[in-house]
């Protein structure tokens, strides 16, 4: 089968049978949410100047954002199992729209931190519902569906950070966030109209009884899940840390303008638009263990070379190498989703992701402390070392 025919067949399997009307708004919503999150690193220098933040306290702001997006995933998973994906995703987009409105008008650093925490909490309501509805819709193409959705997320992260950089340079940093608010409201309406209403009065098997808690704990304590939680924590630690400071690093250590730095940051996610569908498709075809290693070797090389690279062409190449790690999400999330039974998939995913993401949220503030002491380059070399550990662990990862 030719490449064109293969792509057409894959598209038909994803969009046919009315599945496209579910995939499209879910993917667009995810693109807006993660695009909103990645505006923070671009405007971080402006926030530092306006609110008097050091690199450490700026890192703490990003940690607050990631921590908020982590802690809500367990309760959102429980609520998704009991109610509907539609309600959770609509609530998520509306909450983030309201929270970004508060960020834009925040007069003090304290209110900025509080509004940022609310942005994170709103975002935490979306991921589990996104995964469970795609698992139900695409039982045989989950990796591909998640890959497309996450690629749309990277499209949002490709477009909105450079757009925020331009708006910040021309107008003010508040416009970088403000442009997202009406789009989130429109997507909330689209999700409500397009997604099926699966609500039911039958809550058997989803109420938090003692028996159900014992069942959930026994399922979560399996070796495969414990192993995956450790791997996911290490990956999230690297991913959140790298993304939090990359534009700042390019501007302050490599001498790039903020506009060029934000464009390179957007390009990082632009490469991810291509990587994630390929990674998801690779998972569907060759499974766990082999597919993660393929996408993690490039970031190891890129992170090692980053401190020694100078000039835009070299940094574009480094950015392309590091960007392949974005494919890991489509693989790990597909694998995790298939480990859980239908009656606890949301709760299980929420527990694993909350644990891993909460621990991983410590990365930006720790990196900020290191950078404040003049060890920006050494921090990225340390991230490369952690990535090597992930590669070695994935070679021993059990198949689903």
TrEMBL record:
SUPFAM superfamilies, sorted: MFS general substrate transporter (SSF103473)
Transmembrane regions: 22-43, 50-68, 88-105, 110-129, 170-195, 216-239, 259-279, 291-309, 315-336, 348-367, 379-395
Gene Ontology CC terms, in alphabetical order: plasma membrane
Compartments (UniProt record): Cell membrane
Membrane recorded as keyword: yes
Membrane topology per record: Multi-pass membrane protein
Entry keywords, A to Z: Cell membrane, Membrane, Transmembrane, Transmembrane helix
InterPro entries (UniProt xref): MFS (IPR011701), MFS_dom (IPR020846), MFS_Efflux_Transporters (IPR050189), MFS_trans_sf (IPR036259)
Keyword Nuclease among record annotations: no
UniProt cross-references to PROSITE patterns, sorted A to Z: MFS (PS50850)
One matching Pfam family: MFS_1
Gene3D superfamilies on file: MFS general substrate transporter like domains
Main location per the UniProt record: membrane
Protein name in the entry: Nitrate/nitrite transporter
The organism of origin for this protein: Halovenus salina
């Amino acid at each position: 089968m030719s490449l064109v025919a293969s792509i057409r067949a894959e598209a038909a399997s994803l969009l046919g049978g009315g599945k496209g009307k579910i995939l499209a708004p879910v993917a667009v919503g995810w693109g807006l949410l993660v695009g909103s999150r990645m505006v923070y690193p671009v405007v971080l220098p402006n926030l530092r100047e306006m609110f008097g933040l050091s690199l450490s306290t700026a890192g703490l702001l990003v940690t607050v954002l990631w921590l908020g997006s982590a802690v809500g995933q367990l309760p959102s998973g429980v609520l998704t199992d009991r109610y509907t994906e539609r309600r959770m995703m609509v609530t998520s987009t509306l909450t983030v729209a309201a929270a970004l409105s508060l960020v834009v008008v925040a007069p003090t650093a304290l209110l900025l931190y509080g509004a940022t925490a609310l942005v994170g909490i709103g975002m935490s309501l979306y991921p589990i519902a996104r995964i469970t509805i795609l698992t139900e819709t695409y039982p045989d193409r989950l990796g591909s569906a998640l890959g497309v959705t996450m690629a749309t997320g990277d499209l949002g992260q490709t477009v909105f950070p450079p757009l925020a950089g331009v708006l910040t340079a021309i107008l003010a940093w508040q416009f970088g966030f403000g442009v997202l608010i009406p789009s989130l409201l429109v997507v909330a309406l689209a999700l409500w109209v397009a997604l099926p209403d699966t609500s039911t009065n039958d809550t058997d098997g989803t109420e938090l009884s003692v028996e159900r808690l014992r069942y959930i704990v026994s399922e979560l304590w399996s070796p495969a899940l414990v192993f995956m939680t450790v791997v996911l924590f290490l990956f999230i630690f690297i991913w959140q840390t790298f993304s939090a400071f990359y534009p700042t690093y390019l501007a302050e250590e490599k001498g790039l303008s903020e506009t060029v730095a934000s464009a390179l940051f957007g390009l990082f996610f632009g490469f991810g638009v291509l990587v994630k569908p390929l990674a998801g498709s690779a998972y569907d075809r060759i499974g766990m263990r082999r597919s993660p290693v393929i996408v993690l070797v490039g970031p190891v090389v890129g992170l090692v070379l980053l401190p020694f690279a100078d000039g835009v062409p070299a940094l574009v190449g480094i950015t392309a190498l590091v960007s392949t790690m974005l494919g890991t999400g489509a693989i790990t999330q597909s694998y995790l989703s298939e480990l859980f039974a239908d009656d606890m998939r949301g709760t299980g995913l929420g527990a694993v992701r909350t644990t891993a993401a909460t621990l991983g949220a410590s990365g930006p503030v720790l990196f900020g402390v290191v950078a404040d002491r003049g060890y920006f380059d050494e921090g990225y070399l340390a991230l490369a070392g952690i990535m090597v550990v992930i590669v070695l662990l994935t070679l021993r990862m059990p198949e689903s």
